[in-house]
Amino acid sequence: MSVQVEAIVVGGFQSNCFLVWDDARQAIVIDPGADAGRIAARLNGLELGVAAYVLTHGHMDHVSAVAELYDAFPAPVAMHPADLSWAFSEENYMLPFYAPPRRPRRIERLLAENQVWTDGGLAWRVLSTPGHTPGCVCLHFEREQAVFTGDTLFAGCVGRTDLAGGDADALASSILRLARLPPATAVYPGHGPATDIGHELRTNGFMVSLRMAVPGAAGPP
């Protein structure tokens, strides 16, 4: 089995939309935040179907293309209910970059801690990682040693908590949780380049300081 990950940088905030697939050629589409036509063209160009759409959190730059893509490639949509309550409403826009996102016709999956889903032959586990928003989740592909962190953890940085629903203490706990993943785990964030847990443990000042402050923080997840 050959797992492929491709990032498509979309929208005014340069968000990462990820396509993840294996030999079954049914992609998990993570955070389609804008530019639905470009994402659709890439799916068609790679001859991929869509197994599921998964939203790491509700901010407009991570959800705004999901309804249009759902219309073209129907597949289950998954997100945490704490963010679903506002993600497709008038609260969630930033003109001129993003209008309020249109809600897809169906949202089949309400994500919760430690759920395991299998899509297109790939199994992934829900890690509840609030802080940036109340409903932030990370997607842990344990067999593939990869985690998709949305806006919780970036290369060299962490998510902001000064927007509505942000919680710095919750984010700190979420970062510590990610710090306990195996160091070889590849990190695919919602913005910027990929990294890995080991590199962030050594170089990300936020993660380093939290580990120093909390005894045993580098233990098993």
What does this structure look like?
By secondary structure, the chain is an alpha/beta fold. The protein has one domain (4-213): Ribonuclease Z/Hydroxyacylglutathione hydrolase-like (Metallo-beta-lactamase, Chain A), CATH 3.60.15.10. It is 25% helix and 28% strand. It is built from seven helices and 14 strands. The protein has helices spanning 36-45, 60-63, 66-72, 81-87, 168-179, 197-203, 205-213; strands at 4-10, 15-21, 26-30, 49-54, 77-79, 109-110, 116-119, 122-128, 137-141, 146-150, 153-154, 157-158, 186-189, 195-196. A hairpin with a 4-residue loop joins strand 9 (137-141) and strand 10. Helix 5 packs across helix 7 (205-213). The two termini are 26 Å apart.
Helicity, in percent? 25-40%
Distance between the termini: 26 Å
Largest beta-sheet details: 6 strands, mixed
Amount of beta strand: 25-35%
Count of DSSP H/I helices: 7
What is the CATH superfamily?
Ribonuclease Z/Hydroxyacylglutathione hydrolase-like
What is the SS-derived class?
alpha/beta
Which whole number gives the mean pLDDT? 94
Could you say how many structural domains there are in total? 1
CATH hierarchy: architecture: 4-Layer Sandwich
Low-confidence stretches: none
Order of helices and strands: EEEHEHHEHEEEEEEEHEEHH
Rounded to an integer, what's the Rg over CA atoms?
A: 16 Å
Q: In CATH, what is the class? A: Alpha Beta
Strand order of the largest sheet: 1-2-3-4-5-6
What's the CATH topology name?
Metallo-beta-lactamase, Chain A
Globally, the shape reads globular
Secondary structure tally: strands: 14
